[in-house]
Amino acid sequence: MPSLLIYAATALVTYIGYVQLHALFQTVVRKGPPVAANSWWAYLSGKSVSGSVLLEEFYEKYSKNNEPFMAGGHYVLPPSVFAAIRKVPDSIANSTPANEDGLVLEPFLGHDNTDIIHLVRTTLTRSVDAMIAPLQDEIHTSLSAFLPPGPPTLLPGDEEWYPLTVHPSTLTAIGRITTRILVGSKYTTLPAWTDTLAGFANGIIIQSILLKNLWRPLVPWIAPLFNTTRRVAKLRALILPDVRELLANPPTPGTYPDGEPTVLPMMVNYVLSRPGYAEAKESEVLTGVIGRLLDFSFAAVDTTTITLTHCIHDLVSHPPSLYASPILEQARAVLAANDGVWTTQALSALPLLDSFIKESQRLHPIGQLLSQRKVLDPKGLMLMPSEGFEGAKPVYLPYGAVTQMPLVGVHMDGGFYEDAREFRGFRFAEDKVARSQPSDRFMSFGHGKHACPGRHLALVVVKLFLLEFLERFEFKEVERPKDWQLGFMFNAVPDMKTNVWIRPRREEEVEVEA
After folding, report:
1. Is residue 494 part of a domain?
2. Is the pLDDT of residue 264 over 50?
3. Is residue 37 within 8 Å of 23, Cβ to Cβ?
4. Is the residue at 93 inside a domain?
5. Which of 98, 114, 177, 420 is deepest in the core (most CB within 10 A)?
6. How far is Cα 361 from Cα 31, in angstroms, rounded to an integer?
7. Eight-state DSSP code of residue 370
């Protein structure tokens, strides 16, 4: 134990020293923007604050004065140049190399796994309506596991409730649901696949961050030692027979071997259409398919799980009469008007649910900095301020700089949102703008052309999941589980251990088919 404490203290002192020296070098030697970091004195006096507090403070001090600042080694852009960065071509500033710098995924997924945006925006988006029925089926099955085996717990007042730890239960459910979308129903009942996929999605972030901090020549030697590498190999082996079958008999685009739209046949056709794959060896095609499937699952499982966990936490921390009942009443009316069938058009006619999800995302986004881009032009990049920002100066970004958007500052800006720190579930109910549409005031899905391409499908999953949850369960109002603030890091994750309380809905009403 003493050696562990010494190690921890040494690691903390080393980190503090690195942060302070980096901040000094950035502001004094390079004459760069100020760095969002706790001071030596703040650490030593126990007055250091979390990353979110730092970001809000620096947003108020610098962003609102049209000046950039640094956080985590990235340039955080002020609103005066939001429009300018949207117009920059990908050849000059791009999100893909920025993401690879932030999360070293290549050793696990391959070198060309990040080109699926076009497939997601086109083929997959056009298939969402056909996916709703299998999604409903899988959500129904997944939510059955939310009630643990055994008798309920008797709480004060002689009420019987079942404990639910939302995040792990939702992670398992979203792993199954994503599996159904990716590779079909037969894999959802295969624990070797679903458990491995959930573990992959949950663990790759930490292991990628570890690789990021290594000397790059060591990465090929260290990555094979991580369990993410073993998980990828296991998933690859499990799916190999189906990929071989699809390669031997490529499906006609728009058709599916089992009649149910899944990503796997889309992905095989897509990979075969990419340069260099038509005549490639089977092993190379397999790597291309698996890398892209896992990149999709990584993007889908973790982010959707976090979003749903926050939404459920926000539901159970308010009286049912305030949000749950009005949402459910509106959903039942819309479903009845659509002959009991959910479609993307019907799901878009739920302003109360849309608003609730958006407000939850506003206060609890998946990241407090988002929409990063890396400057690829050796000459650097000059961003000119937009009209209306008096006194704003151009922002120069050197070659290799990575930019971020100050999401947490914008979402907490009292000039944009009245009582910005207060949860108002129906704040956006009267908005005419599409609920998934990113803007300069709402960035939970990113910003500009690099916004999340799968947000339309993600929202369908979230809506269907929440509607089924509300139809099947009652909940006991509790204090909202607090998000975990990971110290110096610029993110917040939902509480993963605190129980909330649910039980089967007792009222005698017609259930929503979800």
Report:
1. yes
2. yes
3. yes
4. yes
5. 177
6. 36
7. E
Answer yes or no: is 234 within a domain. Answer: yes
Least confident span in 40-54, 64-78, 300-314? 40-54
Tens of pLDDT, residues 169-179: 998 899 899 89
Q: Whole-angstrom Cα distance, residue 304 to residue 172?
A: 12
| pLDDT level of residue 282 (50, 70, 90 thresholds) | confident
Give me the percent of the chain exceeding a pLDDT of 70: 90
pLDDT of res. 163? 94
Residue 46 region, left (φ>0) first, then alpha (ψ -120 to 50), else beta?
left
Predicted confidence at residue 65, as pLDDT, reads: 94
Q: Burial-class residue 290 by CB neighbours within 10 Å (0-12, 13-18, 19+).
A: buried
Chain segment 435-465, per-residue pLDDT in tens: 677 888 999 988 877 777 788 899 999 999 9
- Interatomic CA distance for residues 198 and 298, integer angstroms: 9
What is the pLDDT averaged over residues 190-201? Answer: 83
Write the burial class of residue 264 (CB in 10 Å: 0-12 exposed, 13-18 middle, 19+ buried). Answer: buried
Look over the chain and give the mean of its residue pLDDT values, rounded to a whole number. Answer: 85
Flag whether 311 is marked binding: no
Mean pLDDT along residues 341-350: 95
CA distance 183 to 185: 7
d(CA 392, CA 296): 39
Nearest to 182 by CA among 271, 298, 285: 298
Integer-rounded Cα Rg, in Å, for the chain is 24
Looking at the structure of the chain, the number of domains it has is 1
Q: Say if CB 404 and CB 372 are below 8 A apart.
A: yes
Q: Is 505 exposed, middle or buried, given 0-12, 13-18 or 19+ CB atoms closer than 10 A?
A: middle
What domain range is 358 assigned to? 33-504
Phi, psi of 412 (to 5 degrees): -105, 10
Q: What is the DSSP letter of 35?
A: B
235 occurs within a structural domain: yes
Residues 454, 300: contact at Cβ < 8 Å? yes
> For residues 69 and 447, what is the distance between their CA atoms, to the nearest angstrom?
18
Select, from the ranges 179-183, 274-278, 310-314, the one with the highest average predicted confidence (pLDDT).
310-314
CB 402 within 8 A of CB 104: no
Residue 133 backbone phi and psi in degrees, to 5? -60, -50
Query: Which of 192-204 are b and which e, b meaning 16 or more Cβ less than 10 Å from the residue's Cβ?
Result: ebbebbbbbbbeb
This prediction's pTM: 0.88
Residues 442, 362: contact at Cβ < 8 Å? yes
Residue pair 486/51 in contact (Cβ under 8 Å)? The answer is yes
Three-state secondary structure call for residue 485: strand
Question: What are residue 155's DSSP bridge partners?
Answer: 159
Q: What is the CATH number of the domain that holds 245?
A: 1.10.630.10
β-sheet bridge partners, residue 383: 395
